[in-house]
Amino acid sequence: MTWQSDALELAQLLELEHTPIGISRMAAEPAGVARAGRDLPSACTYWREGEKRMVYATAADHRNCPIGMMVMGFEPPPEVANEAQILVGNMAELGYLDPSEVAHLPMLPGGHDGILYGPADQFVDRPEAVLLICSPLQAMVLGESLGQASLAPDSARPVFGRPACSVIPRALQNAAAEMSLACKGARVLAELQPGEMLVAIPGVELERTVAALRKTAGANSAMEDYYTTKKQSFAGA
């Protein structure tokens, strides 16, 4: 088994509509990988590019999204840092966030030249993270497989929200799959739909995740049969 086959099986077991997206920090631009070829408005829009093809993005390519630029581990130049301060100020005035939250913004470690985005099964080397755009139902099954729905104390993990891109460094920092309800920016700019959310999985956890998912997917299928039969036994069901 390889991460390529794991990514393909992950999509199959969850019946994903979106291709699992690989994300890796790179020390230099990979040979033979395209650039976007145009300005994109946010870090999360690179996910949609990465569904379709391998694409490489530098710090400068992320400059249109000050918060996303920092989350992805890039040091913003002064003009972008100033834009970020203005943006945070506007968000605070709207009641969208508390300014004190900014100090806790998850960020990838810096020092890389750029980020490689693309279909996870097309990565030559194991991607650092695999991002899933999925439904709550698919996230439910995945969460159960990873023990995140366990009733045991301290076994569950929180589901985060804004900024949506923060789910990626959270997963790597915690060495575990993390879930996000996304944010308004990702829903507008990356066109995430109302019934979609995000799951980020560390690349090194792919094999374990798929192994656990095989069992849980089968169990959910059996439980669906049970509940369907039960429902049919009630008059008017």
Please explain how this structure is put together:
By secondary structure, this protein is an alpha+beta fold. The protein has one domain. 40% of the residues lie in helices and 15% in strands. The protein contains eight helices and eight strands. Helix 2 (45-52) links the parallel strand 2 (34-35) and strand 3. Helix 1 (3-14) runs parallel beside helix 8 (206-232) and helix 5 (136-145) crosses helix 8. It is globular, with a radius of gyration of 19 Å.
In short:
The chain has helices at 3-14, 45-52, 66-71, 78-94, 136-145, 167-174, 184-189, 206-232, and strands at 21-26, 34-35, 55-58, 114-119, 129-134, 159-160, 178-180, 197-202. It has 237 residues and is of the alpha+beta class.
Keywords summarizing the entry:
237 residues, alpha+beta, 8-stranded mixed beta sheet, 8 helices, 8 strands
Tell me the major beta sheet.
Answer: 8 strands, mixed
Placed side by side, the strands forming the largest sheet appear as 2-3-4-1-5-8-7-6
**Overall number of strands:** 8
Shape: globular
Count of domain modules:
1
Estimate what percentage of residues fall within beta strands.
5-15%
Number of helices: 8
Q: How helix-rich are the residues, as a percent range?
A: 25-40%
Radius of gyration over C-alpha positions, nearest whole angstrom? 19 Å
Distance from first to last alpha carbon: 44 Å
Structural class: alpha+beta
Run of helices and strands: HEEHEHHEEHEHEHEH
Mean pLDDT: 92
Uncertain residue segments? none
